[in-house]
Design goal:
The complex is a heterodimer of chains A (269) and B (204). By secondary structure, chain A is of the alpha/beta class. Chain A contains 10 helices and 10 strands. Classes of the chains: A alpha/beta (269), B mainly alpha (204).
């Protein structure tokens, strides 16, 4: 069997970073800047996006996924400007996105839903059945592939969400709180999948769970009130904290130290 | 054409179609029972009573408008496919189906309305629904056609252009103001929906 190699596979990479934001601002609702002057460069690997509630993580991911347009600043994805109007079709083919919550047609089977998403992502027709099967297998739902969506548990729906995000073999994969609703065993499996994906993909995972970051991320992005507080390896995050900081693990202590240091921790929670 | 099956199922078109058929048959039955020979000729629109026909088409369009919004706006919006022609085709095909159902029901006998009337009203109402979807989202797309129909039923007998525009969907076929209103609504609704898509909620 010959392996078909498309021109896109052979084309040299013309960008240094998969994601590059400069002075990025994204307005939400009336006049609140959820992302407020962010400079960030992300390459291949798994990037854990950490931050308190309301830090702007979801808005940032929505901007990266081209759901919302940036208000100001520049955003380059895979070397292409993602700021303007336009459909960005070539770019969107190469992005995978799992929203925090997503809607789906309840009578679809898992396979049909992932197939539908593959069509939305313009996966070549001949590759669709194979790509769908692969994606469903990777999230461990091969035995449930022909069950209807409405028959699935919350954790399974989450995994279907991950499957639809990876069905087009994206170069940039954006996962908003992917581990919510997963039990501990599934979470371990998911971390393995993340590490696997991170070898050739730029994966951005937003999470509240510091231990997810420790286990699966090559890079931590700490984000508070729309701005970058820290970017570095998990070890560097751990090194930032001392015994005097709040937390049960070195990473948690580093997290609280950096947030306290940035003067961005407000309220008793 | 596998994608077309998946797309129409995800947009709940089979259910919408069933609702359209039920509305058309129901209104036909009501129109036959209520609008006798005298009432029909009094409204002066040729065959049948235009109110029942207009109500049937409004109900059909309201049912069809459900499919204008997708299951997930963010996932739809980040799709790589060319949305603009697909959205336009969706609106125009929905109008065609609503009209076709009404025309088919008409063959049961007792003409409710003429072909021109049905085509004009389906197109204009579907344009309004598309405008509604672009302005308030797929779930509320039905509000505009339903509101306009309600207004149309209660305006006094049209004598000048504003009232003729308000009552466009009840006027006899061939009335220029009604035809132009319907055409304008179809064109602007289809264009607005095709370009902007269904309006979404804001998520923080």
């Amino acid at each position: 069997m010959t392996r078909a190699v498309s021109a896109a596979d052979l084309a040299p990479t013309t960008y240094a970073w998969q994601i590059r934001a400069t002075g990025l601002k994204v307005r939400v609702g009336g006049n609140r800047m959820a992302v407020d002057g962010l400079d960030l460069s992300l390459g291949t690997g798994v990037h854990g996006l950490l931050g308190p509630n309301g830090a702007g993580k979801t808005t940032l991911i929505r901007a990266l996924a081209t759901v919302v347009r940036p208000t100001a600043g520049s955003l380059e994805l895979l070397g292409e400007s993602a700021g303007g109007r336009g459909e960005h079709r070539a770019l969107r083919r190469r992005i995978g996105y799992l929203p925090q919550e997503f809607g789906y047609y309840k009578r679809f089977t898992v396979r049909e839903f992932v197939e539908y998403m593959a069509w939305l992502k313009e996966v070549p027709k001949a590759d669709v059945p194979g790509a769908v099967q692969r994606a469903v297998e990777r999230v461990g739902l091969a035995d449930r592939a022909d069950d209807r969506m409405k028959a699935l548990s919350g954790g399974m729906v989450r995994r279907v969400g991950i499957a639809q995000a990876i069905v087009n073999d994206p170069a940039v994969l954006l996962l908003d709180e992917p581990t919510v609703g997963l039990d501990p065993a599934q979470r371990l499996r998911f971390r393995e999948l993340l590490q696997e994906l991170g070898r050739d993909t730029c994966v951005v995972v937003s999470t509240h769970l510091v231990e997810d970051v420790a286990a699966a991320c090559t890079d931590v992005v700490l984000f508070a009130e729309g701005r970058l507080v820290f970017q570095g390896t998990p070890d560097e995050l751990a090194a930032a904290g001392g015994p005097e900081h709040v937390g049960d693990s070195p990473l948690e202590r580093g997290y609280s130290a950096l947030l306290a240091g940035s003067g961005r921790e407000r309220g008793s929670w | 054409m596998r994608w077309l099956t998946l797309y129409s199922r995800s947009r709940q078109m089979p259910a919408s179609f069933a609702a359209t058929v039920i509305a058309a048959v129901g209104m036909w039955a009501l129109g036959r029972g209520g609008g006798g020979s005298g009432a029909a000729s009094a409204s002066g629109s040729g065959p049948g009573d235009p109110q029942f026909a207009a109500l049937a088409l409004t109900a059909g369009v309201a049912a069809a408008s459900v499919g204008l919004g997708g299951q997930d706006l963010a996932l739809d919006r980040t799709a790589a496919i060319r949305w603009v022609p697909r959205r336009a085709a969706h609106v125009l095909l929905a109008a065609a189906v609503v009209a076709a159902v009404a025309l088919a029901v008409r063959t049961l006998g007792d003409e409710m309305a003429g072909t021109e009337f049905i085509v004009r009203d389906s197109a204009g109402l579907m344009g309004l629904a598309a405008l509604g979807a672009a302005a308030c989202g797929g779930a509320y797309a039905w509000t505009l056609p339903v509101l306009w129909t309600a207004v149309g039923l209660f305006v006094p007998p049209p004598t000048n252009t504003p009232t003729r525009v308000a009552a466009w969907l009840l006027l006899p076929p061939g009335t220029p103001t009604a035809t132009w209103t319907a055409l304008t609504l179809t064109a602007t609704g289809t264009a607005a929906y095709a370009l902007a898509g269904p309006r979404g909620r804001h998520v923080a």
